[in-house]
Amino acid sequence: MSGQIAPAPPHTISTQPGLTEQYVKLPNGECIPMSVYQEQYGQTILSQPVAQPGLMYVPPAPSMVGVPPGLEYLTLIDTVFVKQIIELIEVITDFETRNKYSLRNANGDQVYYAAEESGCCSRQCCGPNRGFTMHITDNFKREVIRVRRPFKCFGGCCGTLACFRSMAHECTIESPPGNVIGTVIQTWGCCSTKFIIRDENDRDLFKIDGPCCCLLLGCQDKEFPVLTMDGLAIGSITKKWGGCCREAFTDADVFSVNFPLDLDVKLKAVLLGATFLVDFVEFEKVMNQTHVQQTS
Fold first, then answer.
1. Within the chain, which residue ranges are assigned CATH 2.40.160.200?
2. How far apart are CA 96 and CA 128, in angstroms?
């Protein structure tokens, strides 16, 4: 009908070589100027992300009823790659910086960006046990998910002391920030790390069964299956093997997070939060041990 604005199709943003104006890439491969896109679909983007060479950005999707603001795009995908950004200072020294991550879709387009907030002393002294707040923003710097993780002194090898709640590693996921949508809690495991995923009503929904602790140092992908409480596999969090050099000299981990396409978008966000907890509990620890061996 005339007078109505057509709904905006899925798209990504890029900058054409030699030009300063940003372009929108539509699913059919057509690239149109941002100004034309805004005029045609009635979407005004107030601030643009800082372009990185070779990286495509996914702009915000239209708002949806019942979906926390900023999570609309998660309803369209079943896989997210969480890629930790390499910090040069960590490569050449043992100084622990704030972790930063790029969250991308299956095509490699950046969907979200995550940045750790923590104290310098806690990073150097407490290592992977440190408390932190992970701020997850979209490509236009709007915080859409917040992950809070309290400091825990010691969870024991493979969570052997996680039967004590005061020692179990855990995190709380909020979306929008301030509104709790789920929690992830470490549970007792024999030779493997396990987690329980709970919704905003504190109901146990899923469990994560990690591989045997002795396999975490192997030269292969490490899969953490996501299961229902009855044991039905519905997804996974997989730490990708990055090669000998990356694994030995950096802690720039890459994870693949898989979940059903029709899973509640809030639970998809909780699984993303669980990925950060898995990274800190299992792989920051492994990397710190490698640093100690190299400097001893």
1. 72-295
2. 10
